[in-house]
Amino acid sequence: MKFREQPEENLRLRRKILTLIIPVLVLVGLAVYAAASRNSGDLPRDFVISRQSLAETSRGIAGLNQTLSREIIDIQSAKKAGDKNKTLSLIDEAKKTNSDIYQKAQTLSSGLAKMQQSLVGFTSTTSQALASAAIDTELTLTNEFTAYTRLLGNFFDLLTTSVADDAPAVENNIKESLTAINRKVDSINQLNQTFIKQISDFDKSLSQ
């Protein structure tokens, strides 16, 4: 059985999520990692260890993101082809990957809290303040990212429903879900830009 042709606005929104999911997850996954190995010689040992641990977690998120982005594209292809069984199977796989990303985001949040505690060992109050500001932003970003994964989980649930019922009401729910996801993406990207500047300012302060 073929899936009913979707309204053009819904199709545009679905294409948009494919283009947005990939960069936001990579940015969140790499933000801490990108700054993890620079200028660490004079930093408290606990801070350095926490930073390295967060880098590993971030690499895991980035790797899972690559898997999820492929799975989403495969879901779109299977749904377009009208292969209901394959679509449902792929959605289940994507939900599992998204759940794994959520768990790693929780680990990232806990690691950031530990990193915050390690700031007491700083000798430079300037570097300490800059690091604290960056960590606060990344904690907020991670909380937003965690909410994002929950929204994405809801999106997958709605896709599952749409396989059996492609009524306008279901498609409208999908549209609303994508709108909420895209708003969250914008918030995360803005926070990420703030964090990147803050962590750059922190690293520069170590060489002054």
Describe this structure in words.
This protein has 208 residues and is mainly alpha-helical. The protein has one domain (21-206). The chain is built from five helices and no strands. It has helices spanning 8-34, 45-81, 84-117, 125-164, 168-206. Helix 2 packs antiparallel against helix 3 (84-117) and helix 4 packs antiparallel against helix 5.
**Count, helices:** 5
Give the helix proportion (percent range): over 70%
Give the uncertain stretches in residue-range form: 1-6
Shape designation: elongated
Q: How much strand? A: under 5%
Biggest beta-sheet profile: none
Total number of strands: 0
- Count of structural domains: 1
Whole-number mean pLDDT: 80
Secondary structure category = mainly alpha
* Distance from first to last alpha carbon: 67 Å
Order of helices and strands: HHHHH
Radius of gyration: 20 Å
How are the secondary structure elements laid out?
Layout: H1 8-34, H2 45-81, H3 84-117, H4 125-164, H5 168-206
Notable traits:
208 residues; mainly alpha; elongated; disordered N terminus; 5 helices; 85% helix
Structure described in brief:
The protein is an all-alpha fold and 208 residues long.
